[in-house]
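EI: anyone free to look at a 350-residue chain?
SC: sure, send it
EI:
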Amino acid sequence: MKQNNAKHTVGGRQSFSQLIVSTLSAMAQGLFASLLIGTILSTIGQQAGIESLVDSGRFAMSMAGPAMAIAIAYAMKSSPLVIFSSAAVGAAANSLGGAGGPLAVYVIALVSALCGKLVAGKTRIDIIVTPLITIGVGITLAQLIAPAIGAAASSVGSIIMWATDQQPFVMGIVVSVVMGICLTLPISSAAICAALGLTGLAGGAALAGCCAQMVGFAFLSFRENRWSGLLSQGIGTSMLQMGNIVKNPCIWIPAILVSAITGPLATCLFQLEMNGPAISSGMGTCGFVGQIGVYTGWMSDIATGTRNAISATDWLGLLAISFILPALLTPMFGSILRRMGWIKPGDMRL
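SC: here you go
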């Protein structure tokens, strides 16, 4: 989930694909620094009976919209006035976007920052013109299209979740594989899950796929990268392997195969649901945020009476899907590909 800070081409401008990659990654970081960390603080506070932590978490969660918009403007290398003005844009878009607020924030913050960049530094009253254009465009778009964007994103997420409930085996494979691949690609699986509001069984399948990639690559490449590689990929990101995947795509096969196995196991056998923040569905084992998200969902279900308690099977399912199966199966598939000559020594060295 690292931000792409590479210098780009032609006059320092980003290409469209680079713009999408960098802003999606930044959006996920903004979500992490507000909604996600706020959820974690609030959960710790509730469990420990520390009201100040609960309040801190709630304040952090309420800043999700501004944090996302500011992060997007920053990733676009905007001027300070555009970045600071984006806070109001994010607040409006997230509020009016409803359940699909993150996608509304992404689209509207992107457009408003682009408009702000067009006028930034062009007049002698920049301190007035730049915020006026950035906020004016952003708030106007939020009022006009944020509800529609939010509803559309929420509908797509609802369709995916409904389909997963109806066909947990097939959709378990599809969601797990696709979201796992998105996690390793230089785009943000967390931002995608947040934008679509992916929770429930579909969220559990997404978590399975992301864990298969992170833990899978961590153990598959252990002989090359040892303990530092295990930690950086296992609780950091499998995106570190992207350069090696470009050189030899075959190294991706074991993790993808494992995600196709753990996805349906999560949905059909363990019925693993992500009922915490949707962004957690796309985090995998990064900082153990995915697992914390599942736990907060369990606690929320207990509080609302939809779950009586956390069972041993619940814990077994979470541990098996998140850690045990990827750690065992990925090296097993990898050894087969090594014997076939598809994976060679040093192919996954970081």
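EI: The CA atoms of residues 185 and 239 lie 6 Å apart.
SC: 👍
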